[in-house]
Design goal:
The chain is of the alpha/beta class. Helices cover about 30% and strands about 20% of the residues. The relative contact order is 0.16.
Length: about 325
């Protein structure tokens, strides 16, 4: 990984006292469907209980939602549209949820979507893409791209501006947002105004562990060691991992991509990946801004820490910027 410089040098501090570091999520491979259902219910219940204590709860619950179906190749998948209902024309953000390409759902990210929609005065489009290992690379990614195409073609009927569509995602969803940005450029697809990447996974090929992996690879919720093939469920072969759409950091051409906003957790094994990808985008002439949320761990945007709302507000402010 010495081939890549970092956008800035992090401090690698300790987790903040208020952070509850949960046990890592380990899917029961023998009972995947049942495990996912239980995991989603437990996550939603915990997040609902946390948000109900927040001053923003009543506001975010005023956001209206509508579910529809989107088609990709021979299959359909669910898409949820979040509409704040404050004015006639809105900027649009497509949010790809994280979960190692293999877990979570749009329901788990319900409050993230609602917060961005209400306080950003924007429409949020959230695809419930199919998960690995049942649907391996690039099926979920192609559904992510199909969501972009569907959004450009249909969002005007929801009050969205088809000329102002951004992509956003966290972790493996950040991988999708970065990859969809390249796909739209290369396929001459819908124009993307901005890409917002929360602690993104941007490479599945590493020759050695990064400093952040060594520091935070165990004991900080996300258990991640590149030498242990952490995303094996997502791929059919080793060769696929070298595809720039699987590992955007390996892409030779990152020019003419949308301006990027990175929002990383300090205590996260993926921190260095994001910093290296940001530097490589900057070197390719892409406008980049970077925020490191001190003391936070991977997945913190799903909770209700002060830094959670600060991080969500960074995305809101980035979408509103007129100088990009």
């Amino acid at each position: 990984m010495d081939l890549y410089r970092k956008f800035l040098q992090p401090e690698y501090g300790e987790a903040a006292p208020e952070v509850n570091i949960m046990d890592p999520q380990i899917m029961d491979m023998e009972h995947r469907k049942e495990w996912r259902i239980q995991s989603d219910y437990e996550s939603i219940a915990a997040m609902t209980a946390a948000y109900q204590k927040c001053a923003c709860y009543r506001d975010v619950m005023t956001v209206q939602t509508e579910d529809t179906l989107c088609r990709c190749e021979d299959r359909k998948f669910r898409v949820r549209v979040y509409i704040p209902g404050k004015r006639k024309t809105y900027p649009v953000v497509i949010f790809y949820h994280g979960g190692a390409f293999s877990m979570n759902s749009i329901e788990v990210y319900e409050y993230v979507h609602r917060y961005l929609s209400y306080y950003g005065d924007m429409i949020v489009v959230a695809p419930d893409y199919h998960l690995a290992p049942e649907y391996k690379f690039p099926k979920g990614l192609e559904e992510a791209y199909s969501t972009l195409v569907w959004t450009e073609e249909n969002i005007k009927s929801y009050g969205g501006d088809p000329a102002d569509i951004s992509v956003c995602g966290d972790s493996s969803g950040g991988n999708f947002a970065a990859s969809v940005s390249m796909m739209a450029r290369d396929r001459k697809g819908p124009a993307i105004s901005r890409q917002i990447l929360y602690y993104p996974l941007v490479t599945n090929i590493e020759e050695e562990m990064t400093d952040s992996e060594k520091r935070y690879g165990k004991g900080y919720f996300l258990e991640y060691n590149c030498m242990e093939d952490p995303m094996a469920l997502y791929f059919n072969s080793e060769e696929e991992k070298k595809d720039p759409h699987a590992s955007p950091l390996l892409a030779e051409n990152l020019s003419k991509l949308p301006p990027a906003c990175f929002i990383s957790a300090e205590c996260d094994p993926l921190l260095d990946q994001g910093l290296m990808y940001a530097a490589k985008l900057e070197d390719a002439g892409v406008k980049v801004e970077y925020h490191i949320m001190k003391g936070m761990v991977h997945g913190f945007i799903n909770w209700t820490y002060g830094k959670t709302f600060e991080a969500l507000n960074h995305a809101v402010q980035f979408v509103r910027r007129k100088d990009l």
